Amino acid sequence: MSVLRPLDKLPGLNTATVLLVGADDALLQRLADSMLKTDCASELRVHLARSLPLPSNVNRPRVDLLVFVINLHSKYSLQSVEKSLHHVDASFFLGKACFLATGAGRENLCSVHRNTIVRLARTYRSPVLFCDLEVEGSRAAMAQRLARMLQISAGHVPGVSAMSLLSLLRSSESPSLEDL
Amino acid sequence: MESQPEKRAAAEPADSGGEGGAGGLPQVAGGRSEDRVTLLLRLRAQIKQQLVEYKSMVDANEEKTPEQIMQENQIEDKIEELENEIEEVKIAYEMKSIALNSEFMDNMKQILKLNKLIIRSQKESRSLERKRLEIRKKRLDLKKASESKLLEIQTEKNKQKEDLDSMENSDKIKTIRQNLQMEINVTTVIQHVFQNLILGSKTNWAEDSALKEIVLQLEKNLTRI
After folding, report:
1. Per-residue pLDDT tens digits for A162-176
2. Which helix (H) or strand (E) holds B186?
3. Which of A29, B50, B113, B222 is most buried, by CB atoms within 10 Å?
4. Higher-confidence residue: A144 or B173?
């Protein structure tokens, strides 16, 4: 399959799968480790990919949450994510996808402006999260946040759906100020 | 597009009594029945939620998608409109659920009523307490006043007694008493002298009534005054 669809497979019992897409392997691996260390009642599965589409020969569970990891220090990561976005079904962006931008703290190394990411996220109506994956504390906090989001998108939290989370995470946008 | 190799990270369940496995139900081998029941309840909630998700997707796909080609900013506006609709529906739902929580509201009203009652009763009890305090104060004052009055009476009595005593012990009385005693002594001596005169004269005083009267009178002891 060339397009990743959110609800094409049946969910695994008590299992939630997150797919981290990003060009930087080391960062993804570290984030994956932090996520697996979080205390979660459901079974977490973390899949890593450098870009989409994924090879179709592998039998994998349905993806509950899609996280696009963009390193602000490299333009290549932004480009690869943008290319991968074409292979994602539109229904993913109803709360099952989010953007994660890392490295915004060190301005001198940033080759991608954070506004680019913000605008990208706004185009896809998805939340964007900022953190520094190199720092242990920030990474652990982000991993916990992602674990919680994953639980909600997988349907493990009664009463909260992915879309309601999406509307909660929607930041008060003032496009006129942003465009200044 | 080039397909990139995909890596899979190991999964780690944090369930108590659960073992890692290739998907599927974590085994609760030897786990207590309460853990099992909790797990089953959680799974039930999960499956319910997932079912709701799938149902809503099916319902959404049944709607006809608009076929006309819209411009980009029109699409943006349409999307925003739909998002606002979602928000409004959410808010309406929450308001309804609050209103439907009538039992909760009743309990709250009851609590408020009881609180008012409590406050009123407390006020009343406080004012009664104050009155009681005042009455006790008055009683105490009256007691003190009566005490002082009694004390006064006592001192007056003592004073009178003292005056009396002092009067008795004064020198005037002493001299008067002495004089009196002397007179009594003198009179007694004169009495005895007369007595002995009459007895010594060896007359029969019993025959003469006048002499008899005198002798009998002399027998009166003057100290009896």
Report:
1. 888 888 887 665 454
2. helix B171-200
3. B50
4. A144
- Reported pTM: 0.60
> B-chain residues within 8 Å CB-CB of A124?
none
Minimum Cα–Cα distance from A8: chain B residue: B54
Domain ranges of chain A: 15-179
SS3 A76: helix
The A residues from 50 to 109 touching B (CB cutoff 8 Å) are 50-55, 58, 60-61, 83, 87, 91
DSSP A111: -
User: In this structure, which topology does domain A15-179 adopt according to CATH?
Assistant: Rossmann fold (3.40.50)
Dihedral of the CA atoms A170, A175, A177, A180 (nearest 10)?
A: 140
What is the distance between the alpha carbons of residues B124 and A99, in angstroms, rounded to a whole number?
65
- The DSSP output letter for A67 is E
Write down the ipTM of this complex. Answer: 0.81
Instruction: Please report, for chain B, the start and end positions of each structural domain, with discontinuous segments joined by +.
Output: 40-153, 183-224
Whether residue B122 has pLDDT greater than 60: yes
Angle value at C-alpha B17, between B12 and B21, nearest 5 degrees: 40
pLDDT at B171: 81
